[in-house]
Amino acid sequence: MLRMPRFEVSCPESLPEALALLAESELDTRVMAGGTDLLVALKNRLEVPQRVVSLARVGGLDHVTEQEGSLAIGARVTLAQLGASDLVRRLAPALGEAARSVASPQVRQVATIGGNALLSTRCRYYNQSHFWRKALGFCLKKDGTLCHVVEGGKKCVAAASGDTAPALLTLGARVTLESQHGVRALPLLDLYRNDGIANTVLRPDELLTELVVPAQRPGHRGAYEKLRVREAIDYPLLGVAVRLDVDPDSAVVTDVDVVLTALQAKPRRVARIDSLIVGVPIHGEAFEAAAAQLGLRARDQCHPVANVPGDPEYRRKLVPVLVRRALLRAAGAA
Q1: pLDDT, position 333
Q2: HSE-CB for 110 with a 13 A CA cutoff
Q3: 77-118 per-position pLDDT tens digit
Q4: Which of 31, 57, 58, 279 has a CA 20 to 30 Å removed from the CA of 155?
Q5: How confident is the model at residue 1 (pLDDT cuts 50, 70, 90)?
Q6: What is the dihedral of CA 38, 115, 298, 305, to 10 degrees?
Q7: Residue 90: which residues within 8 A CB-CB, separation 6 or more?
Q8: What region does 9 belong to: left with phi over 0, alpha with psi -120 to 50, or beta?
């Protein structure tokens, strides 16, 4: 049986009280909303905090509201609520699909969008029990000095594994970070770092309180595709989010964005793709050919390593498959 380490639990009743607890630097503190990842990390001794601050009683963080086409989503909204929201299905379809793809129905009832957006990077050599990691000699991310993925590597290559982040990035989402020192609002892209150990710029005294998805262009479409061993429970071996903006009158693509996850420590935006598909009608063979070419360009920019289960070369070969599939579904051509 895996037992959790000893720690103090605080249950603030308000956001100011929660921020005051995070500002106390004398205790190593972690925040718990749904706890679906934190509790596992505690049992595996991946996290050994002195205090856990629960957000269960903090109000004002569980809203999904629309204002002139823009979506405001509280950080404690569960993935089940997000996936079932009519507003999300209508205004941000890729985000709804990504939320519905996470884990199992039971986990989605508890897991939150804030926790998924801030999900720590994962690695096949890190996300194991303490006994397993000790037998291996630990790793760069926790307790050791070696990278077991890249021989001689000096930088942790654990992979981003949150499903909602790539979808949010295609939508141009912003995040609100709050602390006793004030409020920081920044593009979601600026939240992430390509560092397997410290993959976000979130400070220990800050709390992610809200995500905002700006109003999308008329004709907006989106989709999310996920490669995993099983259709439930598993983290992505590869995740692909796409955004298509389509002229409502001519049905021609006016803009496109493709973001991949589970390849490196931060989600990866595919570069130099506009010329392949912008101006192409979404119906017909020309769009299918453009989607295939875009998938190949995405593959050429991806070089997976053995940081998550699954053969890296197989995952690379699936990049064009999932990109093409997501584009066709977004266009309604699947």
Answers
A1: 60
A2: 12
A3: 999 999 999 999 999 999 999 999 999 999 999 999 999 999
A4: 31
A5: confident
A6: -10
A7: none
A8: beta
Residues in the chain: 334
Q: What is the pLDDT of residues 17-43, one digit of tens each?
A: 999 999 998 999 999 999 999 999 999
Query: Quick check: is 84 in a domain?
Result: no
Q: What is the pLDDT of residues 158-186, one digit of tens each?
A: 999 999 999 999 999 999 999 999 999 99
Predicted local confidence at residue 118, as pLDDT: 98
What is the model's pLDDT at position 17? Answer: 98
**In which domain, by residue range, is 242 found?**
221-331
User: Is residue 246 in a domain?
Assistant: yes
Q: What is the domain count for the chain?
A: 2
The DSSP bridge pattern shows strands 174-179 and 64-67 to be unpaired
Residues 215 and 316: their CA atoms lie apart, in Å, by: 33
In the structure encoding, which two tokens stand for residue 260, read together? 């991949």
- Predicted pLDDT at 153: 95
Domain end, chosen from 11, 28, 51, is at 51
The verdict on pTM exceeding 0.85 is yes
pLDDT digits (tens, 9 = 90+) for 235-254: 999 999 999 999 999 999 99
The CATH number linked to 313 is 3.30.390.50
Does 292 reside within a domain? yes
Identity of residue 218: P
Question: Does some domain include residue 116?
Answer: no
